[in-house]
Amino acid sequence: MNQTPIGRHSPQAESRTPLFGGVPGLSLVQKLEMLEQLGSQDTLEQMLQQFAQWVGNMLPISSLSYSCQDLEIELLNTSGTVHELVLKLQDPKGLPVGQLKYGFRNKLTPYQQRVLMQLQNFIVVPLRLYLRLEKANLSTWTPELISPGHDSEFNKALSQAIHRNQRTNQGLCLMLIQLDGIANIDSDLTLSTIEQILTEFIELMLKTARRSDQLYQLSEDRFALLMSPASQESSINLSERIHNQLSHYPTLSRYHIRPIIGASIWSSGQDDETLYLQAEEGLNSLK
To answer: How many CA atoms are closer than 13 Å to the CA of 96, on its beta-carbon side?
Structure first.
């Protein structure tokens, strides 16, 4: 099968000087420049996106994701994967720092494998530090909630996300989440119980959603989540994580609160209203 790889690499390129002045065999100056470029990123995801860009410029990559314990970051997801590769990462002390899952448009040659290993070696050095920063950020991060019934901020955010995705094409998913069961709670317990339910649900979302996701409360029992980068697979994975975590929250379990989730993946030409109606249609079909 003849396929054109992504970026600058081609079969003829193996005999020429590739990007970064030659991989393998980078000079010390080049290595320091690349490490400095990684270290200048503000977040773990931005650092990994820089790495994904390097790999995309050199190899026929179609998908890439990073995971470490409960943390999952999707960096690239396009069609055409015919070969998958999962590589575990260790820092210079031999301690595990997660794994990278690659999807390639064709099986890598020995030369391309060496290129990948050389590039991957650059991120294991700063990765431990970025993981610590990510953990610290997660401990202080709260979702971008708005008061129920005041959805102008959500409408603005949705429109901006669509415009941004038109430029970057990273994928956008709108997920509507309705907490089924709140209406059945005894009226004598409504205020205190609903407050605890919402508190536990937000804690659940803190554990399952990514820092790049935006969470909005649209009504007493309905939330909207904007995911980007996103794909059908990443939205399904998040939905599964939400449901898998329910048993860990006593109030949600005691009152049989069940999140009903409708998701819509943005496609070229869609406006914000169409995207919302598709997500709502999926939500209503599950009630």
So the answer is: 9
